[in-house]
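User: Hey, my collaborator sent me this sequence without any context and asked if I could get a structure. I don't really work with proteins. Can you help?
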Amino acid sequence: MSSTPASSPGWASDDYLGGARWPRRSLDPGSRQEDRLKGYWLILGAEVSDQEAQKEYGALWAPIAQLYEARLIAGSDAVKLIEARDAARVLLVEFPSFAAAQACYDDPNYERVRAFALLASKRSLVLLRGELG
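Assistant: No problem. I've predicted the 3D structure and written it out in structure-token form, which is a compact way to encode the shape of the chain:
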């Protein structure tokens, strides 16, 4: 068997992308590269069905966002909802690191606040690691 980039250690391939190949990058939590990458919450939400719960979530979220240095990227070209089954809105929240994004989500104070978000609308939340610019 010949050694091609796809079969060599350190390379990844994805056949559904026409065999595209790219070098693997280590995202090991202990790596220095990892420490420089930001964390994001990508939130796909349905239409808000409970405006009072949404208002309460916004008020309670503000101090938690400040604590974790979270920043809502509003009106950004970074995210555009193109296809959605149930989502009517998309939000991107930036954190200084993936660890901060995870810690915020796991914070017991946010757990109580999150209950209001879930009352306000159905949503999906994805944690991302990377650099969007």
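In plain terms: The radius of gyration is 18 Å. You can pass these tokens on to your collaborator as they are.
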